[in-house]
Specification:
alpha/beta; Rossmann fold; six-stranded mixed beta sheet; 35% helix; 24% strand
Length: 555
């Protein structure tokens, strides 16, 4: 059987702001058979998405294909005129983006957008397209397949919108589908359903696929073969089973080792008879939300409901749960960005003012927050030196040589070279930006750092390095962390205890290693059972308790 896709000697270069040309894809070769799903894996900057986009005959602004061929069913996407490439897009080859929310027009109904490609290419009448869309909605396990197309994008959940973006890609029966990190932003329980739906529809339609991801466990469930990339070059190609069980290249072994970081070694308990220190953080029946406050004193949308816990100094607490469970709202409430509707927050035994603007400079200094997206948290117009220097001046009054020396010390703490201080955030990698994000919090000399999904956008190797850095900083600086995440492996790697949230409430709090145990809360068991394993048979053999799934379906 001849291959559907054949890539030979692919080379892509990018032009820097200074006009210098840099090779980013360097002589890549691989093929895809009809009906086969091939995964492209590797750390950020390895070239995964760049290669996938060349299958559409497309490169990002500032990039261009400089060599090689990309043939799909005999059509060379590099050599074809743009009009011919446009004719193939959507019909022969289609694309499922990472962010479905960004792919949909908020002002148009879902059905109109899903079937639009059939009108563009004139493949079928509208009535037939709508009927086919409903069939796809059912095949992708979407609720109310006959009527969901009448809704607008904001009226469905993130997981549903991701499946709808797949329906948009599949409506014209393409021979090849590109999946670009389509489950990265989804929580684990939603991810399972989306992966199952993708896999079922692809097999039923005998479609080939390219699955771009940095999550090996997700790749293990859907790919037949894996292409391992680093620095724009292929390191290894093999069957999914071979790559996961007997990797031939040291870099592949490194990716596998980073999949599950080693668990944190708990802090030693205080000697018997010694006075128990004052907790660094105490929450008592804290509720918070958004919107206009009603006569009952509660906001219109209550996202956190009567949450309480105690965090001892030098220890770490993880907060996990599905998207929308209130994790980030809780972090923002503690940070003083949102005033609690009720309840109290104590820091070092002292009552904290509800809002940051009313807290003392010393209280602000001791409690810092690191946000999920360094891209939006760092001012793109300021140099790294300015970004790190501002809190040094604000909290410590440092200037001149003392400020410069402290900036270099902060960069050293997060394992970045001193020369980076003159760069802008856009000139750094994702992992470097997140380290700067962390260094800015450390500039205040805090006692507690709130980490809000700080590894969720990072690839496996970089995320593991950030976790090890957090552990090292804790040993060196005596920090405590409140770690918000939907990545259960990451939380167990750094936290002593884990609080599980569901629908705004804390349903249980246990030692990290006990979360999901038979004696624990049913929702915790459902969460832990949904974490993918490095086993290609895991998804097909997964049998979750249907009563648990039904009981904790999103309200």
């Amino acid at each position: 059987m001849s291959n559907l896709v054949e890539i030979h000697g692919l080379e892509v270069e990018a032009t820097t702001d200074s006009g210098r040309r840099v090779a980013i894809i360097k002589g890549v070769d691989f093929a895809i058979a009809p009906g086969e799903i091939v995964a492209l894996i590797g750390e950020s900057g390895s070239g995964k998405t760049t290669i996938a986009l060349t299958l559409l005959g497309y490169t990002r602004p500032g990039c261009r294909i400089t060599g090689g061929s990309v043939a799909i069913d005999g059509h060379d996407m590099v050599a074809l005129p743009e009009a011919e490439r446009a004719r193939l897009r959507g019909r022969e080859i289609s694309y499922v983006p990472q962010s479905a929310a960004a792919a949909f027009n908020p002002s148009q109904r879902i059905m109109d957008q899903v079937i639009e490609i059939t009108a563009i290419h004139g493949t079928m009448p509208r009535a037939a397209a709508e009927a086919k869309a409903v069939e796809l909605f059912a095949a992708l396990s979407l609720p109310s397949p006959e009527t969901i197309g009448a809704r607008y994008p904001h009226q469905v959940s993130g997981g549903q919108l991701q499946r709808l973006s797949a329906a948009m890609a599949l409506i014209a029966d393409p021979k090849l589908v590109i999946f670009d990190e389509p489950t990265t932003a989804l929580d684990v329980t939603t991810q399972i359903e989306v992966l199952r739906a993708f896999k079922s529809v692809m097999k039923r339609g005998r479609m080939a696929g390219v699955y771009v991801s940095h999550d090996l466990a997700v790749v293990a469930q859907i790919a037949d073969r894996i292409v391992v990339l680093k620095g724009g070059q292929v390191q290894e190609i093999g069957s999914t089973e071979q790559i996961l069980t007997a990797p031939a290249h040291p870099y592949t072994a490194e990716l596998l080792a980073a999949f599950k970081p080693p668990a944190r070694v708990p802090a030693a308990p205080a000697p018997a008879g010694e006075a128990k220190p004052v907790p660094v953080l105490e929450l008592d029946a804290v509720s918070a939300g958004y919107g206009k406050v009603g006569a009952d004193g509660q906001p219109l949308i209550l996202a956190v409901r009567s949450v309480g816990f105690t965090l001892e100094r030098g220890r770490n607490l993880g907060v996990i749960g599905e998207s929308g469970c209130g994790k980030s709202t809780l972090a923002r409430t503690i940070a003083g960005m949102i005033a609690p509707a009720s309840g109290t927050i104590r820091f070092d035994g002292k009552l904290l003012a509800p809002l940051a603007k009313d807290r003392s400079r010393e209280a602000l200094r001791k409690l810092q927050i690191v946000f999920q997206s360094a891209d939006t948290a760092l001012n793109p117009a300021r140099s790294i030196e300015d970004i790190l220097g501002r809190p040094l001046t604000f909290y410590h009054g440092l200037g001149g040589k003392a400020r410069d020396a402290r900036i270099e010390r902060l960069l050293d703490l997060v394992h970045l070279p001193k020369t980076l201080k003159h760069r802008l955030p856009a000139e750094l990698s994702g992992g470097q930006k997140q380290r700067i994000n962390l260094a800015r919090a450390l500039a205040a000399d805090p006692e507690l750092v709130l980490c809000d999904e700080i590894t969720s956008a990072l690839d496996t190797v970089v995320a593991a390095a950030i976790i090890e850095l957090l552990k090292e900083l804790q040993r060196e600086l005596g920090l405590s962390y409140l770690f918000i995440s939907h990545d259960l492996n990451t939380v167990q790697a750094i936290c002593d205890e884990v609080a599980v949230m569901y629908h705004g409430e804390k349903v249980e709090q246990l030692p990290a290693g006990d979360v999901g145990s038979r004696a624990g809360h049913p929702y915790s068991r459902l969460l832990m059972s949904s974490v993918p394993k490095l086993d290609p048979r895991w998804l097909d053999s997964l049998e979750r308790d249907p009563e648990l799934v039904a009981a904790f379906a999103k309200r």
